[in-house]
Amino acid sequence: MPPSIRFDILTLFPEMLAGPLEGGVLGRARRAGLVEIESHNLRDWAMDRHNTVDDYTFGGGSGMVMKPEPIAAAVEALRNEKSWVVLLTPQGKVLDHAVALELSRKTHLILICGRYEGVDERVRIQLVDEQISIGDYVLTGGELPALVLTETVARLAPGVVGNDEATRKESHSEGLLEHPHFTRPREFRGEAVPDVLLSGDHGAIRRWRHRESLRRTLLVRPDLLQRRGLEPDESEWLWKEEPAAMSGFHGVPPSVEPDPPLEKKLES
Ligand SMILES: C[S@@+](CC[C@H](N)C(=O)[O-])C[C@H]1O[C@@H](n2cnc3c(N)ncnc32)[C@H](O)[C@@H]1O
Questions:
Q1: Looking at ligand 1, which residue's alpha carbon is closest to its atom 22?
Q2: pLDDT (tens digit, 9 = 90+) per residue, 204-221?
């Protein structure tokens, strides 16, 4: 099976990427030929004998800016007609499961890691298809964001995570957080594994997991539940189990009687 996706990461610090790309699931997937991931030193495309890749910012200010020529030369050397060029920037669309899924449908991603004050604006205008942020905070460089993006997209490629079913059922893949997991021992410091998980009753286990997934999402990330919505039976169960959280979430339990008509109120 040929690799389903290739990543080319453009950076001034390729050594920062080496360890994470060699180890764990990513390293194994690369060695198995399921994905291709290469990092490239942008200095290799510098235009002068000092390998200059940054310069002062026009208009004044203390920070340096990454020059456009080495980035343009690198992108133009690596891209083909199917390439998708991503700039890592705190000003981009925030990476989430849906964005990762969309990116996993591409066959070639070129990731540009910024440093200093970022990259010359003409890079964004002329070369970039999409800008991605990994969250509303600022790091010193795009290398960690590029690794985060690469790992989350690569693990969606067929075969990368041993059991493809596992990635379909994970947190965020169905708009919910995943249910809790337990392993041995059956009891740890007075806390026992829920009986249902030891029952062998697969229907009951599936139901328990789904409900705990709902409960956890309600308690920790009600915004996700708001977006996904609730089936009537799910809502009913949550009202029974977590009334306080549900009243914050929904306002009124479904069982509350609607107001009596005005004439009835006046009679009483
Ligand atoms: C110090 S930051 C530059 C921030 C820029 N001056 C601004 O205010 O938008 C340097 C580089 O780190 C990377 N970076 C920092 N935070 C990031 C984030 N949350 N997501 C993605 N990339 C980020 C980008 O590549 C950026 O060009």
A1: 89
A2: 999 999 999 999 999 999
